[in-house]
Amino acid sequence: SAVISQKPSRDICQRGTSLTIQCQVDSQVTMMFWYRQQPGQSLTLIATANQGSEATYESGFVIDKFPISRPNLTFSTLTVSNMSPEDSSIYLCSVVWGPNTEAFFGQGTRLTVV
Amino acid sequence: GNSVTQMEGPVTLSEEAFLTINCTYTATGYPSLFWYVQYPGEGLQLLLKATKADDKGSNKGFEATYRKETTSFHLEKGSVQVSDSAVYFCALVGGGGATNKLIFGTGTLLAVQP
Fold first, then answer.
1. Could A110 and B41 be called an inter-chain contact, meaning their C-beta atoms sit closer than 8 Å?
2. Rounded CA gap, B93 and B106, in Å?
3. Please, which residues 31-50 of chain B have a Cβ atom closer than 8 Å to chain A?
4. Would you call A42 and B46 a contact, using CB atoms and an 8 Å cutoff?
5. Which residues pair with B19 in a beta bridge?
6. Nearest residue to B35 (alpha-carbon basis) of B43, B23, B27, B26
7. Three-class DSSP category at B85
8. Is A6 in Cβ contact with B107 (below 8 Å)?
9. What is the pLDDT of residues B40-95, one digit of tens each?
């Protein structure tokens, strides 16, 4: 397993602003992912954070809205840009150690946009 | 594509009652299967897993058996406690789909009353 630290744990932001969420893993890992969990719903994959290259986004998510950085094998950031109330969600980072294995999650960032 | 169908909640039980949360999956091959638990205000924690047919995953009194013939992975616990109140997610990876992206069910809210 891994210790995955995510911050901030929660934030209340004004619409039109941006928030950057950080994810730190205590060991090197190849595969990191960012998920969104809207209120009362399941997890939706936003993108795969690739070390040294651009993130790979899922359908319905774009880089301009959710830019991602992955400068090394232990760290990634997700920015939620130009926020609106519809962006109010829990954002989670996760890591996977290998194919067909379980994912481990950070504790999540609870974002409220007002 | 691959998918997970999960019993809708909320499920409300009295303490010491028997719990079953149904989960079925669709996959072209043989995925790895997982149950995750999300306690209030927290991220997701892996509860148990099974990687091949007839495997039984178990943890904290919870069990689930990988049934290939019925494509199911139902979660059971013989005697629930108030502290088990949480949202439970069934998930899969692989099985003809992407080998590193988990697919989640919709989640089932369990509320255990004293």
1. yes
2. 15
3. 31-32, 34, 41-46, 49
4. no
5. B77
6. B23
7. coil
8. no
9. 888 899 999 999 999 999 999 999 999 999 999 999 999 999 999 999 999 999 87
